Amino acid sequence: MPFIPHTEPQVQDMLRRLDADSIDDLFGEIPASLQRPAPPEIPAGLGEAGIGRIAKARAGRNHPLLCFAGGGAYEHHIPAAVWDIASRGEFYSNYTPYQAEAAQGSLQLTYEYQTMIAGLTGMDVANASLYDGATAFAEACLMAVRCNKQSGSRRIAVARTVHPAWRAVAGTLLRGQGLELVEIPLDARGKADFGPLDRDSGDGFAAIAVAAPNYLGGFPDVKAWRDRADQEQALLVVGVNPVALGMLRPPGEWGADIVCGEGQPLGIPMSGGGPYLGLLACKARYLRQMPGRVAGRTVDSAGHTAYALTLQAREQHIRRSRATSNICTNQGLMVTAATLHMALLGGEGLRRVAEACHARTVELVDALTAIDGVRRAWDAPFFHEAALCLDRPVAPVLAALADQRILGGVDISAEYPELGNALLVCATEMRTASEIQAYASALSGIMRGHTVSSRQARHAA
Amino acid sequence: MPPRLIFEKASPGRRAHAQAPAPEAAPPVDLPAELIREQDARLPEVSELDVVRHYTRLSQLNFSIDTNSYPLGSCTMKYNPRACHRLASLPGFLDMHPAAPDSAAQGLLECLYELQEMLAQVTGMEAVSLAPMAGAQGEFAGVAMFNAYHRANEDYERDEIIVPDAAHGTNPATAAMCGLKVREIATGRDGDIELEALDAALGPRTAGIMLTNPSTLGVFERRILEISSRVHAAGGLLYYDGANLNALLGRVLPGDMGFDAMHLNLHKTFSTPHGGGGPGAGAVGVAASLKPFLPVPIVEKIDGAYRWKTEAPRSIGRLAANGGNIGVLLRAWAYLRMLGREGLRRVSDHAVLNANYLAFRLAEAGFDLAYPSRRAGHEFVISLKRLRDETGVSAADFAKAMLDEGFHAPTVYFPLLVPECLLIEPTETESPEALDTLIDAMARIRDQALSDPQAVISAPHRMPIRRPDEVLAARKPDLAYGPALES
Amino acid sequence: MSEIPTELKFTSEHEWVRVEDDGAVVVGITDYAQEQLGDLVFVETPEAGASFVAGDVCAVVESVKAASDIYAPVAGAVVSVNEALQDSPELISDDPYGAGWLFRMTPEDPAEWEDLLDSDQYGELLES
Predict the structure, then answer these.
(1) What is the CATH number of domain B83-339?
(2) Quick one: A373 and A271 in the same domain?
């Protein structure tokens, strides 16, 4: 059921004008051997009612669980107005604003978004977004190397407390350019410890990358990292959570050179993992090396304020093989949602969300660590996530919780073998005291062996 | 005059009271003081109605497919069915955390698996990964797989990618990101690649070639089978930039043309929204020889159950924090299921019919086709060089005048080969009446260029702004509202 | 027709080179090049002290619609750059052979200068 408006007489009339007998004639330049006699074997077409039935049945076979998982994707309240307005056709179905005169709405919105992200991170400028937090991190690393040619180093020191998927994506994207990521290991208190790298005999580092708060919920000692970066003549790249910045001192205040982050917490549904929003901000002096689109304020030929994409000469469609990145799209629709979200919450609202997340997570950690066999990996301050250690493998415990419709967290045992059986838990402002209690009693039952997961039961049978 | 910024509409202490947690739900935190902000972030202080009005008003300053026709070459701006948006927004999809167990996400995984399978069928590829979040990431995956393939064959000398001069800018940019040197080859006068230039570029250093077919000139590369056999004979691989697949959908399969890897721009051919610049999705497909190198994760079906496969020993690795732009993939899934087997070819049939009709009628109206002897694919190029020489009206001026007529401008100055060019792609969802309106508008602008060129050179006249000063914007970048950043 | 001063040497990449009394060379882009690029918006100059071999990319000039690499015309070390271009890239458009100079370098081999194009040869290049 394609969306084609032509009537049959119109098609015949068009063909007559073209002096063609049939539509097939229009494909006459294509070698016959390449033209398939029959279309590919996919299912027959459906009307809207038909696809609606299937989609609803499939959505119904998903079972969103009571969410205590974070790890880069967070369940927050999203004001109804965010997606009501972002889904307006004028935002949803417009093109990249290359024709500024026909896109002042999106351009002004992007300028407002850049201002909000710069303000939140304490940096001078932000771009109009990258694909997600992981690609923003990879692009921040690439950008740092370009900005720090003096160092001559092709290496970046990355804390193990940076999201494992961010590090993996950076590995994929940096490999081709001969850049190396060197891991900064964890110390016993869950902090990245540069010490072992002191003996490193390499050619120094173009950048040091940390996250604040980090993947394990904790806070790096930011002043020490700034000093370390200075000592190494490296740029300091900092990964952030924008909701946490509602209450945390922005990295711009303690000397970050480039800030990147996952913007999903700003009004974007978890949606199985995407589309999300890559945040990127930097000091003004690095602006020309920042990848991706950026909107600027200027004047029009009548002297009135106007907005336009700018600094495009760095981008792939002009610079081609010497561009700052091959990035072409940004996450425009997600930028729209995040801008609405930040405007609706304001600075105070975002702080309260952050504080509520922190308070709920304190309650959660207290409740869970009261259970035998559950302890904190270390006793250090956290934002809205904490690493717990269990006295047994995590996966069966999570499966048993899932049977009780609880998503108990993220199993990080494989990514962090040094922690043993490790579980990353999170409670956002959405979790209530009774939900936290429900999780604690379910976990307590499982840890006391009262419940086995249905899967274990099946295996046993 | 544009609306004031949201920051300028703020009043200290004003809030959208319904949105943030109550103060008692957000007790002061017990964390070291040096971690905490001294004052709240300088976001606007506005009411909910302020926000709704401000951004609704901004939206009304945009062109969009829902309000205007976009004959924007290379971008395939077709109608984005509302059903796809509604269905991808069902709570069962939206509320799914990426770490949820596969057992709780079977409905989502089934849709994604089905999309992988359908895209493999539609392209003639062996396997598909949905991980790339945009066409440029799909290209990256493809070229990174070329590298991995050659290395796996202990062939370490291949460090060059051949790219025709008409290629999209992402192609050479991607090759550079993958550490390869770009060898540009010329396009012949008839729009086909010059085989002599290809032969001269091919050799033991050739990792592969990146092609769009039909090319960005809007014409089908007729010797594609010859090209693919020569590239393969030299030990290279072929990458298909799927940007122009709308011209061939259901009729010609890239796999049959000899391509080893390709991406699909789901936001073009499969009608997911452009959203003002994204999110896109750039699913990548490969021939059997490259399957082990596909980016992860991939959805697998084992014993009737679906699961994310997150590890593969020879994979080029991850491209996204999670499984890609899932919400976009769901929209493409819904669209493709609606099209169905018989709908595929109707898309390319009518896209190509519309383009040829438009090209023919514009030529009749006095416009110069860049390749008059060729059939158009789903798009075509006209050159305004003659008009520019006669009147001083450039392609950019002409494009701005089209905005005044209610049409989004075609792609201008791309491909780079044709002077003063407009690249025009009507798509299949525009009616013949809409095409006639476009032809009339373009003829009117041309007449005006001949009679009163200054009126066109100073266009647009009826848009929210006149032309922005791009030189000022780039010389003195103003990228954030200063007063909102001062503490 | 763009201006081609006869006392200068040129490269096929549309750069001009002038030899100073002290043997240093001053490098800029030609009037033709700045016309082709249009209004310049940004210039990325090399660091003083950096060394290049002939043909290395050592600077970038950007207009709204293009970015163009500048290649070292001869081998040598950069001794100074035109700092005024940071705030006023339009100097290149206004005075490409004077106030719009890009950088000054000490050539490794003064004879290399002789191999560059003279104004007649460069003029022919523009006409071909």
Answers:
(1) 3.40.640.10
(2) no
